[in-house]
């Protein structure tokens, strides 16, 4: 079954390079087991459709549209902030999808449920969540910190398409835990950002200064860009400080500060 699935996806991927005048003759396979679908895919992610581009072709099992996604969570493949995927049906703009895709360029099928709106993909999302923690979590401490960071993200409006930067104070378990939730990049990978502080932090980036969990209390601090650069610029953008406490039903925000200058 797995070979059939892979063959179909690569046939669909190959079609992208053609002038969209033919039809893939092989039929797709609806896969109910997430583990089989995961093994066949090159990319697995949760994302929101930002824009779409029609190919102009019509028919079954052909690429009728490409969608550019804001990637909110990645389980397999490139940890990019945006990905472009072709499909055999049209996507709904601003809607969140769980996407399993393969090939170069990436293609998927909505007709055969390789890609579904997130509200219809609960069983697959539950399976992916369990797989993620089993594969990536290094300790119970990191899992607790990751859960607290997810609550922090609600204070940041979910984080959207922001790129998270690990400051010099974010090391060890704290950095690994945040990396379970969102991709983290180094200060040196951000053009124009000062090696210390936040001067030169571009718009769309969030610099995490510190994050710590002590017992039932957690504290988070960081700054969202843009932050001006230059010798006379203030070392500030939009700063956030969030304090949390662990309750019976999970982490709760008890204090939150936003500082703008």
What report would you give on this structure?
It is a single chain. This protein has 261 residues and is of the alpha+beta class. It folds into two domains: 2-131, OB fold (Dihydrolipoamide Acetyltransferase, E2P); 137-260, Nuclear Transport Factor 2, Chain: A, CATH 3.10.450. The protein is built from five helices and eleven strands. The protein has helices at residues 2-15, 34-40, 122-136, 140-155, 172-179; strands at residues 43-54, 65-76, 82-87, 96-101, 115-117, 163-166, 184-186, 205-214, 217-224, 238-247, 250-260. The strands form two sheets. Strands 7-6-8-9-10-11 form a six-stranded mixed β-sheet. A five-stranded antiparallel β-sheet has the order 3-2-1-4-5. Helix 4 packs across helix 5 (172-179). The longest helix is centred in the middle third of the chain and has 16 residues, at 140-155. Residues 1-26 have low confidence and may be disordered.
């Amino acid at each position: 079954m797995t070979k059939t699935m892979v063959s179909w996806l690569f046939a669909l991927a190959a079609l992208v390079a053609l002038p969209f005048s033919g039809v893939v003759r092989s039929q797709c396979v609806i896969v109910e087991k997430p583990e089989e679908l995961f093994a066949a895919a090159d990319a697995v992610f949760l994302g929101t459709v930002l824009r779409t581009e029609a190919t102009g072709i019509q028919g079954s099992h052909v690429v009728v549209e490409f969608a550019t996604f804001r990637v909110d969570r990645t389980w397999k493949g490139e940890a990019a902030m945006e990905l472009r995927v072709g499909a055999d049906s049209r996507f709904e703009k601003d809607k969140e999808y769980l996407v399993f895709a393969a090939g170069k360029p990436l293609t998927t099928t909505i007709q055969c449920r390789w890609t579904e709106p997130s509200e219809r993909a609960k069983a697959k999302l539950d399976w992916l969540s369990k797989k993620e923690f089993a594969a990536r979590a290094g300790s119970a401490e990191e899992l607790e910190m990751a859960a607290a960071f997810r609550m922090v993200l609600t204070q940041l409006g979910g984080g959207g398409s922001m790129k998270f930067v690990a400051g010099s104070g974010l090391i060890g378990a704290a950095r690994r835990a945040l990396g379970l939730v969102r991709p983290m990049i180094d200060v040196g990978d951000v053009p124009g950002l000062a090696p210390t502080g936040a001067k030169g932090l571009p718009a769309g980036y969030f610099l995490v200064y510190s994050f710590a969990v002590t017992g039932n209390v957690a504290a988070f601090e960081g700054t969202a860009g843009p932050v001006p650069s230059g010798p006379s610029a203030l070392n500030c953008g939009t700063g956030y400080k969030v304090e949390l406490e662990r309750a019976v039903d999970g982490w709760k925000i008890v204090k939150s500060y936003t500082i703008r200058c």
